[in-house]
Amino acid sequence: MGPIVLTQVATGLSVLAGAVLVKSVMDQKPMAGPFQRCATCNGTGRVTCICSRWSDGDVGCRTCAGSGRMACSSCGGSGTGRPLPVQISVRPPTNRSS
């Protein structure tokens, strides 16, 4: 085997090892962080644009800029679920004397 073949084999093995390393890290902790993927867009952040529903073959509008895909309305285009801000107020109990 020549030096070029050995270099190509070594490069291929290093790419394979890197892919295995990245997969193991992704299995342990996904990049989405503490939020789960959006169920509407499956984490892509994009959904089919409304203009393609009534289209006669041509797709494109101002919202999707001609791509036929627009930002997901459920996650705002982030691809992850967003926590909803909620404010809970509790009144102190009233003492009823009889």
TrEMBL record:
Residues 1-27 form the signal peptide. Keywords: Signal. Residues 76-98 are annotated as: Disordered. It comes from the Eukaryota. This is Chaperone protein dnaJ-related. The lineage of its organism: Eukaryota, Viridiplantae, Streptophyta, Embryophyta, Tracheophyta.
